[in-house]
Amino acid sequence: MKKPVILLIPFFISSFIITREGNQSFLKAGIDSVYQVDGPYILYQKDSILVTYLYQDGEKIYPATERYLLTEKEKIKLHVNTDESGKTFPVYLKPKLSEEKSEYKRVSRLFILSDLEGNFTAFRKLLQAGGVMNENYDWTFGKGALVLIGDFFDRGSQVTELLWLIYSLEDKASAAGGNVHFILGNHEIMNMSNDLRYLNEKYLQTTKTFNVPYVSLVGENSEIGRWLRTKNVIERVGDILFVHGGISSEMNNVNLTLEKFNELARPFYADTTYHYPYVETDLLFSENGPFWYRGYYMGKQMATDEQVDSTLDKFYVKHIITGHSIVADTISVLRRGRLFDTDVHHAGGKSEALLVENKKFYRVNQNGEKKLIY
Questions:
Q1: Same domain flag for 144 and 279
Q2: 125-148: per-residue pLDDT in tens?
Q3: 147 and 9 in one domain?
Q4: Which runs of consecutive H residues, i.e. helices, occur in the chain?
Q5: Alpha-carbon distance 29 to 64, whole Å?
Q6: For residue 49, what are the domain limits?
Q7: Which residue in 28, 22, 157, 161 sits closest to 87, CA to CA?
Q8: pTM for the structure as a whole
Q9: What sign results for the dihedral spanned by CA atoms 234, 236, 237, 240?
Q10: What strands, in cross-sheet order, belong to the sheet with 179-182?
Q11: How many other CB atoms are found less than 10 A from the CB of residue 201?
Q12: Where are the beta strands (DSSP E) in the chain?
């Protein structure tokens, strides 16, 4: 394989190419003073794959891009920053992306969390404390499942790193007989559809450096964007339903399966028109849809027990687990164990995950301490 080309130029301007040999001053400077501050971002351009990192040297930020042929995809090794100075983890691109199933069989162990919003430190500590991965970012949860119920974008400053960690853990989990479920929340949908009201300032700077709109970095020509478009907004694992916001009474009244709900939602993740071809799709993207609904926990029309029971019956489950709405500093169990809320104040140091083990439910903190809650 030929050495990749380095481009120290605005992201999509490929007519001015600086080779490794012609850019020795930058590479030498990097030994002492240049450090990676964002990335990698992977974009596809005709028969090429562009791998771009952002580096900082003093007050200056540079994009550095390596170009590979599509046929070289399996040889690409990414280096992703962590929250620990000088420590990275490797990521290899998936040879193929496929849409996720909507329903899965029960597993003996589930580790569940949501709403990290760019907080890599809290995510890492919880996964390590819960035995999901080790200090080398290897999967250590065996045939168990990691379930992430949305909102990993926005607010925090390590969104890119969070997404690549989830991406890499999927293949590691699969190799061990386990699984990673990444169910989309409203913030994933917002970013794909160019609603950037909560985007961290760091990523606004990234777009200025690249001279491209942020939405293109999670668009259909990006690896992360293509990967996100394979994800669901609702999933069932055994007798548990996972959804970011919840299931409204309006959704209960629609005679559709989980698979059909996901099929209707997926083509419109990046839609900015808000004009949908079906009333069911319009419902999915409304305030009563699965990634915006808050009626389980707040609002004028709070969900009744009958509504919750209707959802349980409709989807053949015993429990519903959500994120999206903070109701306490800890993982919450409500409605006599029929409903669990995993959204907590991660940024405020109140970080927990939910562990389901042999049909028992535990809160787990960053020290690995677990407490039976149901």
A1: yes
A2: 999 999 999 999 999 999 999 999
A3: no
A4: 24-32, 120-129, 159-175, 186-192, 201-210, 223-228, 249-252, 258-265, 279-284, 305-315
A5: 14
A6: 5-75
A7: 161
A8: 0.92
A9: positive
A10: 179-182, 145-148, 109-113, 352-357, 360-365, 370-372
A11: 8
A12: 5-7, 35-45, 48-57, 60-69, 77-81, 88-92, 103-104, 109-113, 145-148, 179-182, 234-237, 240-243, 319-322, 332-334, 339-341, 352-357, 360-365, 370-372
Residue type, position 238, single letter: G
Measure CA 359 to chain center: 26
Quick check: 139 and 104 in contact, CB under 8 A? no
Token couple for 366: 């960053």
132 with 50, same domain: the answer is: no
**Looking at the structure, do residues 146 and 223 belong to the same domain, yes or no?**
yes
Q: What is the pLDDT of residues 170-222, one digit of tens each?
A: 999 999 999 999 999 999 999 999 999 999 999 999 999 988 999 999 999 99
30 and 170 in a common domain: no
Residues 280 and 252: their CA atoms lie apart, in Å, by 11
Residue 140 burial by Cβ neighbours in a 10 Å radius (0-12, 13-18, 19+): middle
163 and 225: one domain? yes
**109 and 47 within one domain:** no
